[in-house]
Amino acid sequence: MRITFLGAAGEVTGSCYLVQTEAARFLVDCGLFQGGKDAASKNVATPPFDVRAIDFVLVTHAHLDHSGLLPRLVALGYRNPVYCTPATADLLEIMLRDSAYIHEKEAAWKNERLDDAARAVAPLYTVAQAEATFPLLQGARYEREFAPRPGVRVKFRDAGHILGAAIVEVRVRDAGRDLKVVFSGDLGQPGRPVVEDPTPVRDTDVLLVESTYGNRDHKDWLATVDELVDALEDTLRRRHGNVIVPAFALGRTQELIALLAQLSLARRVGRLNVFVDSPLAYAATQVTLKHADLLDAETRDGLARLLRGKLPVRVRFTEGVEESKKLNLIRSGAVIIAASGMCEGGRIKHHLEHNIGRRECSILFTGFQAEGTLGRRIVEGARSVRLFGESFPVRAKVYTLGGLSAHADRSALLAWLRNFRRAPREVFIVHGEPETARLFAQSVRRELGWRAKLPEYRASYEV
């Protein structure tokens, strides 16, 4: 068996692994590169394989850094199945359509400013190409083994990261022997609201494990919730400003809504006016409710009461651009949740424009900020930022609630690895920034005694 690392090797985004065996050639994930100066060139690069020779694709979950290049794969000629959980299939339809729409709009915006029509910019992919991906999606439920091709068996297991996220177990017959490979996908932090904890895996021959937070532990959960409550009280009640929350439309937004419902039930927060300014987040929330059987019981109850208007927390989803613009007229008392979660595009940039320079306001970060992104610069203490070609001072108070992360921290990753009854023959540390991945590999070697490798981008390994 040969595995080629086509993304998430020495970085967090762009997850994509090409697996070649006697029985099949397939991809696990086909993710978009995000942030950093090389992301655009990597996204448009010609794949180092024959697209038409790929037998199938397995997708761990619907975040774009794991799925966002599927339409480009289809545009290049791919026509075979894309397997994922049913919830992921539903989410991909909204995520990929939205991603394509943004690519089309960005290309049109750039072309309007070009004098030379011959240099016109094409979108990475179009809405039509994204929609051509949807008929290829095939849902497979957790814990139900299926055979995408003779000689290959696959099982999805709950990764506890976002709705529908999966750990992928693959069994293949290769070179006269059976081999098992486990792809962790993105593992969730145990004990968080909304989804269940990651499923333990007991054995494998080859393991690819994420390391997003492999060099540190998250803040204590109770302390994180206390900080969230303090941020809301300090901004809304004492300083009379707005709380601006850059949040991933899928996963983090639904988790925040569920957490606010729980805090309201516990009477830890009073009346709140929460605006979710993201059509994508609204669609993702509807899919979440459709798959409510995957949510934990406390989340199901809290969301039901919140959405029926039975709590002091009022959540409103904006319906259009004009309604979104009206939020910029609100000077105090609003919690505005908008994408993108790393502040790289979308409506959040407009809300930053109107609030980041105001001392009475707060910017509340609740998720990972990749290197090279606007969110990362704000978190690291930038005194000013550029938005829409203009410079704005950063006067708003900045909160970083690391304890809300949907990714397992160092201790949780090691705890999940300790479920294996024996050391895998091969362990690859992926989905982490270079220094983070290196430090996590050291932890795996020191604490578990496993040999852990750090694959390089586009490197191939025989296993």
Features:
2 domains; 7-stranded mixed β-sheet; 463 residues; Metallo-beta-lactamase, Chain A; 22% strand; Rossmann fold; 14 helices; globular; alpha/beta; single chain
Protein architecture, described:
The protein has 14 helices and 22 strands. By secondary structure, the protein is of the alpha/beta class. The protein has 2 domains: 2-216 and 427-462, 4-Layer Sandwich (Metallo-beta-lactamase, Chain A), CATH 3.60.15.10; 221-404, Rossmann fold, CATH 3.40.50.10890. The strands form 4 sheets. A 7-stranded mixed β-sheet has the order 6-5-4-3-2-1-22, with helices on one face. It has a 7-stranded mixed β-sheet with strand order 7-8-9-10-11-20-21, covered by helices on one side. Strands 14-13-15-12-16-19 form a 6-stranded parallel β-sheet, sandwiched between helices. Helix 7 (252-265) crosses helix 9. The N and C termini lie close together (5 Å).
User: What is the typical, i.e. mean, pLDDT?
Assistant: 94
- Gyration radius from CA atoms, angstroms: 22 Å
Q: What is the molecular shape?
A: globular
- What is the CATH fold-level name of the largest domain? Metallo-beta-lactamase, Chain A
Q: Do you know the CATH architecture of the largest domain?
A: 4-Layer Sandwich
Strand segment count: 22
Beta-strand content estimate: 15-25%
Give the N-to-C terminal Cα separation. 5 Å
How many structural domains can be distinguished in the coordinates?
A: 2
